Structure formats: C-alpha cells, structure tokens
C-alpha cells in the first residue's frame, strides 16, 4: 500500500483554486431575469346588424308587413367581448330587449345603437323588438352563445 503525502501548501492552493473557480462561475453565470406575465389581451369583436322592414300588397289590396333583424342569427363564444352595433335602417324606432338578460335599448332610424355583450352561459338568447313583438310575424333575432 502506498501512502500519499500532500503538503499543506498544495492542499491550500487546491482549496483556493476551487473557491476562486466557484466564485467566478457564480458571478459570471447568466442570471434569471425576473419578469411579469403579460396579461391576456381581451379582444372585442364587433358585430353589425340592421333593422329591416318589408311590406307588400296582396291582390285583394290587403297590405302585409314583415320585420326583421339582419342577420337574423349571430353566433358568438362564451366569455367573448362583443360590441353589437345595430344600425337603424327601416322603421322610426325599435325598442328591444334580450331575453335572459337585463339588456334593453332603442334603435332609431338613421342612428347606430351599440350594445356591449359578454355572455357567461351558453345558450340561445332572443333579441326581441318590443315595437313589433305582438304582430303576426314578430321581429326576433337570435344570439347563439357557444
């Protein structure tokens, strides 16, 4: 068996080299940069709709009318911010409500009514014109939330 003698000088020198090496690595190694998460950008979708009224005379002289929101159905996503713009094209005034919500409003001819929407539950919500809700063909649009 061989016995190896290490002088104190060499032991001290090795220890100092290890300490210097670790210190250099600690100071020169790339450090983690603290960052903050970027908040998720919530995009608002714009949906345009118009009021439409149609009328005609039958052969016997009877006048009939039809009222609608156009497009009659819009599809949006749950938790999606939507800005519904209803342009008053036909009819003097259309007061409305959206069933299942507290949303109400009025669309006036020549003006645009903007309604911010954010549905938390899926389903089909009816956009009902209160002015033409009791007619033979009520003015109803549908908002489908997926």
Account of the 3D structure:
With 146 residues, this protein is mainly beta. It has a domain at 44-145: Sandwich (Immunoglobulin-like). It has 1 helix and 9 strands, in the order αβββββββββ. A hairpin with a 5-residue loop joins strand 5 (93-98) and strand 6. The termini are far apart.
Total count of strands: 9
Strand order of the largest sheet: 3-9-8-5-6
Q: Please identify the oligomeric state.
A: single chain
Element string (H = helix, E = strand): HEEEEEEEEE
| Helix vs. strand class | mainly beta
Low-confidence stretches: none
User: What is the averaged pLDDT score?
Assistant: 88
Rg, Å, rounded: 36 Å
Q: How is the biggest beta sheet arranged?
A: 5 strands, mixed
Give the C-level CATH assignment of the domain at 44-145. Answer: Mainly Beta
- Strand portion: 35-45%
Helix tally equals 1
Q: Which CATH architecture of the domain at 44-145 is right?
A: Sandwich
Overall morphology: rod-shaped
Percent helix: 10-25%
Structure in a nutshell:
The protein has one helix and nine strands, in the order H-E-E-E-E-E-E-E-E-E. The chain has one helix spanning 8-28, and strands spanning 44-57, 63-70, 73-76, 81-87, 93-98, 104-108, 112-117, 123-129, 140-145.
Key traits:
146 residues; four-stranded mixed beta sheet; 43% strand; single chain; rod-shaped
List the helices and strands and how they pair.
Elements lengths: L7 H21 L15 E14 L5 E8 L2 E4 L4 E7 L5 E6 L5 E5 L3 E6 L5 E7 L10 E6 L1
Parallel strand pairs: 1-4, 3-9
Antiparallel strand pairs: 1-2, 4-7, 5-6, 5-8, 8-9
